Amino acid sequence: MEYRLIDTQEAWDQIVRTHNGHPMQSWGWGSLKEQTGSWTAHHVVCEDAGSFVCAALVLVRKLPWPFKSICYSPRGPIVEDVADLPRAADLIAQWCREHVHAVSLKIDPGVSGVTLNDGWKQGSTILIANTAVIDTVPDEDAVLKSFHSKKARQYIRKAGRMGVEVRRATREDLPAILDLYHKTAEEDNFFIHDDHYYQVAFDAMDDVNQVFVAECEGRLLAFLWNVTTPAAAFELWGGVNEEGKTKRANYLLKWTAILEAKQSGAVLYDLNGLLNDGISKFKMLFIEEPTQWIGTFDKPLSPLFGVWEGSLKLYRRLFK
What we know:
This protein is α+β, with helices and mostly antiparallel strands. It has 11 helices and 15 strands. One of its GO terms (molecular function) is aminoacyltransferase activity.
């Protein structure tokens, strides 16, 4: 078994596209985390006699002495067959132990029905496992008919009759998008990053970005920011104003994004997480039932893992 690192975006994204990698395994996502935080991105491929076994975008963060570092592979590792995930997770963990001396590796694969090997333990959640997923493989009519709510289908058509139009966003749309996002976050009480984060994201994730705006007579009503590979389209951020809600712009916006994902070759459309809130109730209109991924897991890679985990819990209690 051999490991090698990929050092170009073109080569890495080809691996992601070819081997069913999630968009959060893309070069662009790693670049965003490098440019806006304390992570370093490593693009690891594991091969057996030159044949692909698995791969992973591994984000590495340095820790204070004596812990050295922690690793996180969002929605990784990459495998062609879900049944190979337990072995792949162990192989990527081995790379993290040997090459960056990590205290642990965290993963949260977007898969179900798989049990990891011994040594993995349930970890604190980063990406929510309970989510809403749409199968985009059937034809357009079948996808539309699969929506749980008849009202959702009606509102898609109503938005069009009320003059709502949806298009791909450009960088010039960012100020208006971010203004709307701040207002939506304030109204719905959820955390967002500062504007610089999204400005970097628009350029850094050009390999996977699908950003849409819904307008009426030039007025921004809503936006939806997705990342997409053949494995999945994944909703990251979105917002809608009062006029957009009245004109049902967010329904036509989501339908357009689903169609764009399908046309791009994505086999799944992931609405990214269900919580007990109004946003989740909106997402549930588009699916028959939630999808439950296996969750978030940590692999301790050092005897110091227990000390690190205890220190982190104490810090959260003191400064939450």
